[in-house]
Design a protein that fits this description.
The structure is a single chain. Helix content is about 60%, strand content about 0%. Helix 1 runs antiparallel to helix 2. By secondary structure, it is an all-alpha fold.
């Protein structure tokens, strides 16, 4: 067998098909032999056997052949899995990478276009509001009023008192009893 041929699609397909077919034939033979051995042992008594000894002995021996049948079936499945994995991971990889790169570039261009459109819209709003006449344009926010000055001398006289009419305390010391100073 040429090892270099194994690294081509046709070479690996031929190898895995040969191995798969051999394991399938082996699994069929193991199954047939297991049936024959079980039936023969169930009908062959050995001196000193009890009621179910023949069937139990036949099951133990044929169980090993069934395990061989199962292993061969799994080996046939693994041969197919080998080919599928090779095709997926080696042969199809360049096409998948190219498709992923194209998709990534498309998303990047879409994001750049969206950012560009948002910047253009923002600049358009800014230019429109700066070029608007001093009168309020339709849909534009009104001008803020200048802040009104509250004289600092006594702000409590400007607002109405709460129920009771007493003036609020002016410092925190009004809440605590004054001690003797001496």
């Amino acid at each position: 067998m040429d090892i270099n041929a194994l690294f081509t699609d046709e070479g690996l397909r031929a190898f895995t098909a040969t191995v798969r077919d051999q394991h399938v034939r082996d699994a069929q033979q193991y199954g047939q032999i297991a049936d024959i051995v079980r039936r023969r042992l169930e009908q062959t008594p050995i001196e000193g056997d009890r009621w179910m000894s023949k069937k139990f002995r036949a099951w133990k021996v044929s169980r090993q052949l069934r395990a061989m049948q199962k292993a061969s079936g799994e080996a046939a499945s693994k041969a197919e899995a080998l080919y599928a994995t090779y095709v997926n991971e080696v042969l199809a990889l360049p096409q998948r990478r190219a498709a992923a790169e194209a998709k990534k570039l498309e998303r990047k261009n879409g994001r750049q276009a969206a950012v560009g459109a948002a910047v253009a819209k923002s600049l358009d709003k800014t230019v429109t509001s700066l070029n608007a006449p001093q009168e309020q344009a339709p849909g534009a926010a009104g001008q803020a009023r200048p802040a009104e000055f509250v004289p600092p001398d006594n702000p409590w006289n400007q607002w109405p008192m709460a129920a009771g009419g007493e003036r609020p305390t002016s410092t925190i010391n009004d809440y605590f009893a004054k001690g003797e100073q001496g």
